[in-house]
Structures are given as C-alpha cells and as structure tokens.
Amino acid sequence: MPINVLMPALSPTMEKGNLAKWLKKEGDAVKSGDVLAEIETDKATMEVEAIDEGVLAKILVPEGTADVPVNDLIALIAAEGEDPGSVQAPAGGGAAPAPKEAPAQAPKADASPAAQNATPGGGHMSYERVNQAPEGAVPAQGAKADGAAQAGPSGGRVFASPLARRIAKQEGIDLSAVQGSGPHGRVIERDVRAAAANGTGKAAPKPAAAPVAEAPAAGGAPAPKAAASAPAGLSLDQVRGFYDKGAYEEVPLDGMRKTIAKRLTEAMQVAPHFYLTVDCELDALMKLREQLNGSAGVTKDGKPLFKLSVNDFVIKAMGLALMRVPTANAVWAEDRILRFNNAEVGVAVAIDGGLFTPVIRKADQKTLSTISNEMKDFAARARAKKLKPEEYQGGVTSVSNLGMFGIKHFTAVINPPQSTILAVGAGEKRVVVRDGAPAVVQMMTCTLSCDHRVLDGALGAELISAFKSLIENPMGMLV
Predict the structure, then answer these.
(1) What is the DSSP letter of 125?
(2) Coil, strand or helix at 374
(3) For residues 63 and 77, what is the distance between their CA atoms, to the nearest angstrom?
(4) Angle CA 135–138–144, to nearest 5
(5) Active-site residue among 184, 273, 409, 452?
(6) What is the pLDDT of residues 261-299, one digit of tens each?
(7) SS3 assignment for 306-338
(8) Are 61 and 68 in contact (CB under 8 A)?
C-alpha cells in the first residue's frame, strides 16, 4: 500500500505553498528524517522531512509549482516490500480528492488512527494538519472553539479558519451555506470570498426583538449584507488606464508581498490606530554603550563576544516598559483581551521584496548581549529566508527602526495580532534649553502606534513614557 505524501501545513495560517525543489528523485530510497523537498511559504523556505521508510515511487507535483493547496497529494512512497514500478498516480492527478459535503455525523471518537488517516486511494496520510481539532472533537460546554467551528442552522458544526470567519462576518456571509474546500471540508478564505463575489450565502438580518430568527426560504431573494464591506481599490485595467503603454514594467506579486498587502490593509481597516511621539536624549545611553562594548570579551578568533547597537537598547527598553505597564502588555482577541506574563518584542528586518519581524521572546528577562546576538542570528537567517514560522509569529509589540536611513520621524502600521509598534528615528544632535541656557544633546524621536481597542490614550502615554525613562536612564536596563 503506497504512502501518500501531502503538502504540509507549515504554519497555522498556511493554506497553500510553492514546491520549490525536490531533494529526492523517483527511485531513491528514503528513510524517516530524510529531507524530501523544499517548500516556499509567503515568508520562508522550509524543508519537508519523510516520516516513513520506503522508495520514492512517484512525484506528482513537479518542482517549481506554485500555490499548491495544503493537503494536496504531491508524491507517493512505495512501502517496504512493495514494487515502486507498480505504484500508480490516482485518477485525479496530483490533487487530493476534494472533500464533499461535511458529514451529518462526526466520526466515532474510538476510531483507530489508521482508519482516520485512510485515503480513497488506499494509502494513508504521512502528513496531516495539527493546528485544528479533529472533526469528532467537541469543545467543553460554554467554550468557544479557536476559530474552528460554529453552529449551522441544522445544529451541525461548520469548520472554518479564523480569517474565513472574520471575512464572513465583515461580508455578512452565513458560513453554514458555504461549501468548504479546505482540509476535511474546512471553510477557508477563498471559499468565503467566492461566496461574497457570487452573492451566495448571505446571512439574513437579525430581527430586532425576535428571540429566534427564521431561516429564509430556499430560492428566496438574497438577504442584504449585515455590514457594508470595505471599499475596493482600483482594478488593474483602471490603474493601467492612467499611464501610457510602455511607460512601466509589470512585476507580478510574490507570496510575501501579497501577504504584506493583505495583512497591513486589514490592520488599518480593523485596528483603530492612534500615535504618540516623544523625543529621547541619548547621551547617557551612548556613553554606556561605548563602555559595555569596550569591556566585551573576545572569542578564540579574536572577535568581540558582543557588539551592542542602539537598537538592542531600544528592544530591551520596550520589553521592560511593557512589564512596568502590564495593562499595555496585551493584544486584542475578538471578544476579549489577552494579557501576557512576559514581553515579546518583534523587530522589523528588511529583506529584498519585503520584511520579516522575528520576535525576541521574554525580552524583559534577557541581557543586552543576549538580545544583540539573537538579533544578529535572526537578521542573517531572515535575509536567507530560513526563519521558522514560530520565530516570527506572535509578539505583543514590534520595533521598526529607520534611523540608519537618516529618517527623523515616521509612523508605522501595527502588525496583527500585536497591539503596538514603535517607530524609531535617527539619533542626531539638537539644541535644547537646559537650565535656562542652550545646550547640544543627542536626541532620537520615537512614535508609538497603538491599537485603540487595547490601549486608551493615557495608557499608551504611560507606556511610551516608561520607554523614554529607560532610554534616558539606561543603567536601569542592567539591574
């Protein structure tokens, strides 16, 4: 019985990926742990390892193929004792069979794992998504599934991704009327957008005083949208119409640019931003930085063990500020706020065609030298697109520093699901009044973007004031 190799879900939000390169060819023996292929997501290139032994009998999706949906069949491995030449591709080609209507009854909880992983082709899944509950799992009474399901009109459960649920809510789409094309019939983003474009699945408006809403009769007029959708931008043809042909070159969007455009557009539409700006004196920080770098030990190669940058102090100060103002150390989560025990600070790293935001975990607890070395490693692997999803997902706040480009002041867009982002400008000498006389000091302008759903103006001011105090009194970061 051949072993199915499926396109894996390499992050909780991944719905498709590009098969960049096969590292094994047909006829090669494989064992558990061997790297089979490289998969490109919107943010990184990841390696896919075999978890079974056998011979790679058939490659169904050639390298270079873009937008392969998660859980599509990409290869077949002949099991031990099986003739690789006898393994045949399924009739549908490389794609795994699309799930039909969700079953009316959940699978039995005592079904064996082998039976649950059985596929129509007679093989079994080598890879499976683990970021969602099995279809038979039922949450505790009163608990809400993590973006996975909602009740349909007939009382059955509807599985949907968090993004699909959010878009459905914005567009007024009834998820129970949408046919899912994701794993196990799960409703995903493209299903909801297709339903919105076709005018199907519109939810009926809730009566003002009726305790129970009647479902609209089949074939009736489509119900109006629950809320007006966000205005769409200009179409491709409309934009082209403003310019002469030959005056421009069309550059197709890669996965990273599409993701940046989608997520940050949603951030500006969903998260109400407000901005707070402070000027921080850097004289004490620059002096301390020089002393610490001068006292750094050296490696066997004669290189310093660390070399602190101003940005390392900024990351540490932001982490400590969040702990001094714990109410601000939080993110928005649909119907509640999640408040964190430690500070997780993302740092924007520019690469060709986009950026990564690797997260320094527990930044409040780490030393400046640890943060410095960790950021150097993150930056190098970000530029090589070798970061793991868990290294750039999550976080409560981020730091975006454009000071090295001579930018004095700017505002940044919050990176969901975070609630703040700090825009850091260049350090420069400025004349200030001190004790009634002019004085020249090193200054840096910083602007905090805040999500008004999580932070009010006074709370945001308290947070950025704590940050300013740490920057101007940097010895507080050493104790």
Answers:
(1) E
(2) helix
(3) 17
(4) 110
(5) 452
(6) 888 998 999 999 999 999 999 999 999 999 999 999 888
(7) CCCCHHHHHHHHHHHHHHHCHHHCEEEECCEEE
(8) yes
Whole-number Å distance between alpha carbons of 312 and 306:
11
Backbone dihedral region of 389: left (phi > 0), alpha (psi from -120 to 50 degrees) or beta?
A: alpha
pLDDT computed for residue 231 by the predictor: 58
Residue 126's pLDDT band, with cuts at 50, 70 and 90, is very low
For residue 455, is pLDDT > 80? yes
Instruction: Find, among 363, 354, 423, the residue nearest to 395 by Cα.
Output: 363
Q: What is the pLDDT of residues 315-339, one digit of tens each?
A: 999 999 999 999 999 999 989 999 9
What's the one-letter identity of residue 226?
A: A
**Percentage of the chain modeled with pLDDT above 90:** 42
> In sequence order, which ranges of 254-309 are alpha helices (DSSP H)?
255-270, 283-294
pLDDT of 34 > 70? The answer is: yes
Amino acid at 448: L
Please enumerate in sequence order all residues whose Cβ is within 8 A of that of 143, keeping only pairs 6 or more positions apart, or say none: none
Q: Report the candidate in 11, 10, 17 with the shortest Cα–Cα distance to residue 258.
A: 17
Q: Measure the CA–CA gap between 30 and 24, rounded to whole angstroms.
A: 8
Instruction: Say how far apart CA 174 and CA 152 lie, in whole Å.
Output: 9
**DSSP result, 172-202:** TB-GGGS---SGGG-B-HHHHHHHHHHT-SB
Kindly list the distances between the CA atom of residue 372 and the CA atoms of 29, 323, 401, 443, in Å, as whole numbers in the listed order. Answer: 43, 20, 15, 22
Does residue 273 carry a catalytic annotation?
no
- Residue 320's alpha-carbon distances to 46, 343, 373, 465, in angstroms, are 33, 7, 19, 12
Contact in structure between 160 and 154 (CB atoms under 8 Å): no
Contacts of 413 (CB under 8 A, 6+ apart): 264, 267, 268, 273, 421, 449
